[in-house]
Amino acid sequence: MPIHNPCALLDRLLQEPNESTWLEFKVNNKDPREIGEYVSALANAAMLAGRDRAFMVFGVRDKTRERVGTDLRLQQLKHGNEDFTNWLSRMIEPRIMLDVVDVECDGLTYSLIAIEPSYERPVKFSGAEFIRIGENKKKLSDFPEHERSLWIATGRRRFESAVAVSNATADDIFAQLDPEPLFELTGDPRPKNPDEIIRKMIEYGFLLDNLEGRYDITNLGAIMLARDVTLFPSIAGKAVRIIKYIGRDKSKSDFEQEGKKGYAVGFTGMMRFLMERLPKEERYINGVRRMVPHFPETAIREVIANAMIHQDFIVGGVGPVVEIYENRIEVTNPGNSLIATDRILDERRSRNEKLASTMRAFGLCEERGGGLDKTLIEIEAGHLPAPDFISSENSMRVVLFAPRAFAQMSKAEKMRACFFHCVLRWLTHDYMSNATLRERFSLAPEDYQAVSAIIAESIKLGRIAPADPDQGKRNARYVPYWAV
User: Domain Schlafen AlbA-2, which positions (predicted)?
Assistant: First the structure.
């Protein structure tokens, strides 16, 4: 992020406590290699401290914070015959964002370097990594605990923390973001003071104080609270797109609708729009005739929320897509599944942790990892065909199927239902049996043999296994293949 108001930034940095590891004051140090080592140390210290930038300021005494000015001009400094800034960028690995500014404030001249940390690996200068320990610059290799922590920190860097819009005023923020979901969805009281609302957005990680009297809007803030996502280049196209087709293929579409609001702002309206347009059937509920959607709303909500959370935001221009067919719904997100589809109910891994935790805090999805479990439970309760999870190199697709009787299901659908029923039983520390699978398919006891055939075929193909290898056929119990 560039420095927009260097004098305001200087005033703000002088308010920081002396022990800030991501901030260094100097007066006239003109040694390019010394400066380069400090850039490495400050970048790595900023990552450990969770800061989006580190700073090196020339023209201020380190101990007293006295403003004395400097005769250094970083933008004019040379290393050999090469401009200092070009040389420094070349000596730093990996490449990071550096902003070098010479400025006059209140009659004194200062030079500032703003340093963004690397989110790939620790930053090296001339092949060596440095770190700030207290107020001292040290070689990172001499502090293995810090080195280990730094590698962990760089691995946690996510798209959500990056800046979507920099140097925004308070008016800019309220024009581009809708803060109401912070209070409507969480139940927190709404402050009357705009400064308190901004403070709340900072707490959630939607905004960053840029230390220059303004704010940076993060990608997380934009994707959750945007009034119009198309105004943010980094998330444009990431709203949910809904397409309804006539029939069972893509040959003829009924309508296509792409949202523009952030997820927290538009999720409820999107779900209402979707549920009103799903295929329905007539049922009598408590003696009253009602039109009921083919698909449970809870299952659809969790699958869509899962697609939002686990999408790969680095894949530009495309977001989650919901496709409605006569006999199914397909929900696709960019980015393959981080988990093997056979373990999608029991393993926990998220591509976008901050987005996931925020969606949970706002009540837009289930607790950590419970969304797809609940989807399967709802589907089994309705005796619907089991969903299909299809992971490819660049996308993840979940297919929900309309009601279909057991006799109408294909062999593959029956096997899939058997496997996921077995997984759900295992997750509750229980076992699948012929009786539980019959109940799952809404079959009578006399259909024992039909269910036994499915179980036998599932064992043959290695999808499930007997809970006890020595058990007899009567009252036999089963677990997923990966549980033995």
Answer: 19-140
